[in-house]
Amino acid sequence: SSSGGQSAAQQASASPKSGGTLRAAFPGGGAAETLDFLNGPTALDYVRARAMHGALGAIDPGAPDGVRYGVLERIDISDDLSSYTLKVRRGVKFTDGSALTARDVLYSLNAPVTLGSLPFLKPPSQNFDLAKARVEDDLTLVLPTKRPIADGRLILCQSTLVFKDGTTAFTAGMPTCGPFKLTEFQPGQGAAFVRHDEYYGLALGGGPYVDGLELRSIADATARVNALTGGQADFAADIGPVASRTLAANGRFAVETSELPYATSLSFGLNLAHAPFRDVRVRRAFKLAVDREAIVKTVLFGHGFVGNDLPSLGFPDYAKEIEQRPYDPGQARSLLRDAGADGMKITLTTGSEVAGLAETSTLYAENLKAIGVDVTLDQRPPGRLFADEGYFKLPFAASFSPPTPPLSQYESTRTAGAPSAFGFDRPDIDELVAKARGARDAGERREAAVRAQRLMWEEGNQVIPVFVPSINGQAKTLGGVRYEPFASFSEARLV
Amino acid sequence: MTRRALFAALCAGVIVLIALAGPLLTDRSPTAQAGNALLAPSPEHPLGTDVVGRDVLARVLHGGLAVVALSAGATVLAGAAGLALGVLTGLAGRRTGELAVRAVDVLGVVPPLLVMLLLATGFPAGDLAVLVAVALVSLPFSVRVVRAATQQVAGSGFVDIARARGDGQWRILRHDIVPNILRPVLAETGLRLSASIHLTATAGFLGLGAGAPAPNWGRMVGENAVGFALTPWPFLAPALLLVVFAVSVNLLADELGRALGVRS
Amino acid sequence: MSELARVSGLVIGPASGGAPTVDGVGFTLDSGEVLGLMGRSGSGKTTTALTLLGHIRPGLRLREGSVRVAGLDPFAPADVRRLRGRVVSFLGQDPAAALNPARRIGGQIREAVRLRAASAGPDQVDRLLDAVRLPAGRDFLRRFPHQISGGQARRVAFAIALAGAPELLILDEPTAGLDTVLARETRDLLRELAEGRGVVLVSHDEHLVRALAADRVLVLDAGRPVSAPPRAARVTPSPPPGPPSEGPAALRAERLSAAHDRRPVLREVSLAVGRGECVAVVGPSGSGKTTLARCLVGLHRPAGGEISLEGTRLAPDVRRRTPDQRRAVQLVAQDSMGALNPRETVTAALTRPLRARGLPRTRVPGLVAELLGRVHLPASLADRRPPALSGGERQRVNLARALACAPRVLVCDEVTSALDAEIGEAVLGLLDELRRDLGLGVVLITHDLAAVARSASRVLVVHEGEIVERGPTASVLSGPRHHVTRMLVEHAADQGFGAPAP
Amino acid sequence: MRWVAFLARRIAGAAAVLAILSGLIFAATEALPGDAAGVLAGADASAAERAQLRADLELDRPPLERYGDWIAGAVAGDLGVSLVGRRDVDAVLFDRLPNSLLLTALALGAAVPAAIALGLAAGLREGRPADRMVSSAALVLVSLPEFLTVTLLIAVFGTWLGLLPEVSLTPLGGRPWDTPQAMVLPVLSLAVVGLAVMTRLVRSSVAEAAASPYAEAARLAGVRGVRLALRHILPNALGPVVQVFAVMFGGLLGGAVVVETIFNYPGVGFELQQAVANRDVPMVQGLALALAALALAVLLLGDIVGTLVNPRLRSAP
Ligand SMILES: Nc1ncnc2c1ncn2[C@@H]1O[C@H](COP(=O)(O)OP(=O)(O)OP(=O)(O)O)[C@@H](O)[C@H]1O
Ligand SMILES: Nc1ncnc2c1ncn2[C@@H]1O[C@H](COP(=O)(O)OP(=O)(O)OP(=O)(O)O)[C@@H](O)[C@H]1O
Ligand SMILES: [Mg+2]
Ligand SMILES: [Mg+2]
Ligand code: NI
């Protein structure tokens, strides 16, 4: 039952009530957890940061601009797509009482470069020329782009959090402007918060509704479920498809899955350095061979979305007009035969980094055997898949990708023969993507985006059979949990 | 042979038989998807299906060989090395003995999991890594038990006499030391086997060791642990086989020790 | 006088069936009485005595008969608890094996005192130690059983048995392995102890039994009570010792010193045994005889001195000696229980040295049978393990095993202490024969001056680690010069083993 | 004096082992394929980004140089900074080690006396019903893989009976012992595993000692029951047992990973596993070294006690 977060939220708002302490369990990273979310390796680090720091906004396909604004009021784009004007919301206050200004926002956008960060926080600095940014007044910031782009709002709002100008260390006592105030943090154990009473959202009639928030770090999925069922937590993140079925049978708990676009793609890279994959028929055969429905049904117990070998399902730029590729082992087999790759030998390297990856790989391998590929599965222990320098040299490797807008993601990972493209180097598609991002006219933009994606769909070297949402368990008393892109509790309520 | 010994031998025999002849007893593929995941037992799937919808019975029948070979291999490896090292260091002069024991200590103090993780990463074949890791991890136990027992016996009058008589080390070992330390050694061997079964299963549980999707009781236990609450069989069937195997071999070791240790 | 114990119709045999070990034994004992239990080695004395404690050795089974001690049945679990240690106290035949190797002797004695005597002051321990003539010093009490001499171990065990003044004392060979002075003192002590309580005295020492038990003597023969009193051991005068052989001595030790834990126990001891010669080493218990024996065979590393075999110098450590040298010098150890591998049958124990000599497999069984015969052990023992042997049988297995090596020198540490006069005589006769026929040199460590007189050509007297007197047997025994020798000889004379007339 | 020399020799030996181990640990962690940069960067990072990360993390310096720095630091009590999360390794160690030590100590504290009691009870009654019962139970327990035992314990005490929490959530800012009820299941899980192993060893040693002549002599002297067991039989049975207890401690300490993971117990084993998964080399090295040092210390203790309980060794250490 992928009921989505909405219904529960509605339930909760039917009888709105404030107060209580919400306890949520997340897979943590042990002592490696840090308040420095720029370098924090786990999802929990980011969730925690999101609770304490204000965000520029969040991606929201339903909103007019494709984003829901946070500490910003709006983002205006110049007609030539070369300059973005950020309007800071008036009255956003830090916990030390000072007001948030455009300078703080600029500093925060620059921080991933000046303070160092993990790659996923770098897109704003890659797309905007921050050195040339101008602070017009306390509430106005103008950002020139490096080259004209239309999807800058998504990039800015996807994951940027704001903190005070001049911050160099992330500590428990630092001023923050998010929905909650941190009161206690213990790496590997958890963090405790109280509601930030000066939070700008309250004045707008929103949350947070709970008085306190506890984010607990529990590494083992079974343990998280146990914490939930044992009443030690109200929310358990990422419990995985199997546990979700167990939980669904229990009347006191609900299984909630994140809505699109917040789903992780499971993908398989066909390395073009490996001769058989240079033949597009072989690539197509590999795409036709996979039984996507079966994977969704058996591996994900229905909590998943069938993929169409294109990333970023659910984002505005995603080409939903391209027809769904069928499961056609017969045609796959004949394509292989035509290409002379019948009975080809290949090793599929996979891991268990995210829920369903290992199982999906297992089923895919069986699907491939059925069309006559002699496939060996190399299942690496957890945490081992990308650790290897040689990962991008593997002929056939599993991967996953968190939800990101398709075009900017393509540019940062697959253009100009980037190693992560597994030898896929198509200047024509690169150009189409660049055009799509930079076109002033919406129709033109759309058309280029779809054309680029169709080419990737037809000739690309990525098999993306399914998208796995975040599957969480929660007490029936909890509602209003949102995704941006991880679970956020700023609007959550306990009834 | 006592009734217990007979029973133990029978159980162990059945398990080994399942392990060896299992693949012949089914024509179902142990890796092919046979239906929905985690189906309850039915006539078609007597033990149900596992987390990815493979027939559990077929996997159980195919998955014994690796485990039996792995645990027996590790036991023999660790047991033999432990006996040899333990006896030698127990008999050797103070200096040499101490040195050798220190050397083994090096192994003993590295957390077993670390050894396993390191080896599982370093070796290309995961199962071999598990075997070596298990053997290495068990070795210090073996050596210490055997060594302590040996030291106790080595001080007795009859060993003195044999030595004074000119019996070679080997003869003393065979006639005086080994028979008198046999009980702890056999008990220890039983423990080695359980330990290696544990570690193999734990490796599976933690996702170490390569070879997936090939079935292996240890790995099956790990793979299906999440589905325990939905249908226990994919988890229980291999776990039970492992436990029965360990119990029966331990029992056999005990009975053997009793039989050999009879004080007329 | 009240009846303390009654045994009737006792039949005990191997659990696996076969001829009984004890067959129809019965007796009664009043308090104040001493009952002597005599008979040949293996005749069932120990087995009978143990029934008073309700104990049957593993492998044997009580077939018939009843036992009552102080009106209680020792074979009833409830009664045995009230008996053992309180009413009945036991001194075993192998005290070395009976002491707990992991505990200090002081602790073991103290425990026995505390356990049995309700109002025991610390002086109780001292009194016991004094009674058995053991030093009460801290240094001694802190030692472990393997750190004391055989005679000392027996006295420690005796002290433990005496603790708490039990009503019935069962003593299995209380004087075996004690020097004549101690043996005499033990006899006096026992006479004192017998007042007001009962004593069952198992001994092959006819004089001791006769002195204490008067005519309350039960003689066993192959498990059956026999009426005839045992034939008095006739001490045959020794065959005139042959003249010391020419050439280098078979075994020679020169200025040998040794220590235990840096405490010197041997000081510059020199000794030589010629081919075919028998040299006796006598001395009070704890004087260092066993240490000397262990030095000779290389099991104890001397602190100084030299040992040579037929002129060739021997390494002090047995591990450094050649196989041939090792075989040439054999030890028959004092602790006969500890010296046998509990897991090895008699046959296996004898087969090993024979095979090690490289004898063909086919000849071995014949030789094993021959060896058993020579030490007067029945072939029925061949498949037993040491716990199923009597004390004297074990001693003889040890001897047979040493002989199986075909040694040139045999170091015998109390080889006849657990043997009755007849078998003891036979064993000494066997040694004579080997000396004569094979030129075997014998170092005879013993407390039995009669045996010395019978076999040895020369005697060394050790006292506190030093040789205080040496000389031809006849002259030493008849004209002892050192006071220690004098004491030993005098006490021997009291016991009836007079020195042979000069 | 002899004892001083003996201790000095043992301690020097342990130090030498530790030195060798530090080299081994460093080499082994170096040999792990891949590095933290790869893990941190994720699948989508470019080669340049990886290189940058490697440089940031100082992974591009020669290994020997880094080993030197590490050892110099370790001697001075500074184990460096973790690559992931950038925390002082010693701080993590000092935070987690007490928790693990407590868990292990409680487990051993529960298991050792119980194992001795059960092993004695069974070994003294060899072949009788009490022995059968204890031996069979130990046999089955010893044959159960840890995670199975843990799963069963959770199912019984947590899920069915609802007596104890299934997860050991330590109050934030507190220590595990602040919520003792949350420690029961982890301790029990760990203890059960050790208990079975040790019971079996104690039993076999005791059975051996109980059949010895001195035990028989003690029985004939009227020593019975607890006294017989504790004063006469146990001292002789203890040699091999002490040794195993010592190895056990090291094993439990480092091997508590499964238990710590399942209960989310904040211990060193759990951190170690995380660190290996993260390829966080300084963290792995620091934790492994600390565990090794600790285990060595316990082994040393085991050796000393083992020598003490074996008088033949004791009199001439
Ligand atoms: N291993 C040992 N450690 C310390 N002292 C010992 C050891 N063995 C023997 N001793 C002591 O050394 C002395 C000599 O012992 P030894 O066994 O040689 O005497 P012995 O002459 O054979 O006595 P006995 O006639 O009683 O057998 C004794 O005082 C004894 O207590
Ligand atoms: N477990 C057993 N099975 C069979 N025979 C045994 C067993 N134990 C002892 N015997 C035999 O029983 C006989 C009597 O033994 P016991 O120890 O009573 O003799 P003993 O008269 O004390 O002899 P010694 O003077 O040599 O000590 C011996 O021949 C011995 O071999
Ligand atoms: Mg006897
Ligand atoms: Mg002696
Ligand atoms: Ni004097």
Automatic annotation (TrEMBL), chain B:
Top-rank lineage group of the source organism: Bacteria
InterPro entries referenced in this protein's UniProt entry, alphabetically: BP-dependent_transpt_permease, MetI-like, MetI-like_sf
GO annotation, cellular component aspect: plasma membrane
Alphabetic keyword roster: Cell membrane, Membrane, Transmembrane, Transmembrane helix, Transport
GO terms for biological process, alphabetical: transmembrane transport
One Pfam family matching this protein: BPD_transp_1
Main location: membrane
ABC transmembrane type-1 domain mapped to chain residues: 64-253
Keyword RNA-binding: no
Keyword flag Ribonucleoprotein: no
Entry's family note: Belongs to the binding-protein-dependent transport system permease family.
Protein name listed in UniProt: Peptide/nickel transport system permease protein
Native organism: Thermocatellispora tengchongensis
Lineage: Bacteria, Bacillati, Actinomycetota, Actinomycetes, Streptosporangiales
TrEMBL record, chain C:
Entry keyword annotation includes Lipid metabolism: no
GO molecular function: ATP binding; ATP hydrolysis activity
PROSITE patterns: ABC_TRANSPORTER_1, ABC_TRANSPORTER_2
Family to which the UniProt record says this protein belongs: Belongs to the ABC transporter superfamily.
Organism this protein belongs to: Thermocatellispora tengchongensis
Pfam families: ABC_tran
The protein, known as: Peptide/nickel transport system ATP-binding protein
Alphabetically ordered keywords of this record: ATP-binding, Nucleotide-binding, Transport
Domain ABC transporter: 5-247, 251-489
TrEMBL record, chain D:
InterPro entries listed in its UniProt record: BPD_transp_1_N, MetI-like, MetI-like_sf
GO CC annotations, alphabetized: plasma membrane
Keywords from the UniProt entry: Cell membrane, Membrane, Transmembrane, Transmembrane helix, Transport
Major subcellular site: membrane
Domain of life: Bacteria
GO BP annotation list: transmembrane transport
Transmembrane segments: 101-124, 136-163, 183-202, 237-263, 283-309
Name used for this protein in its record: Peptide/nickel transport system permease protein
Organism: Thermocatellispora tengchongensis
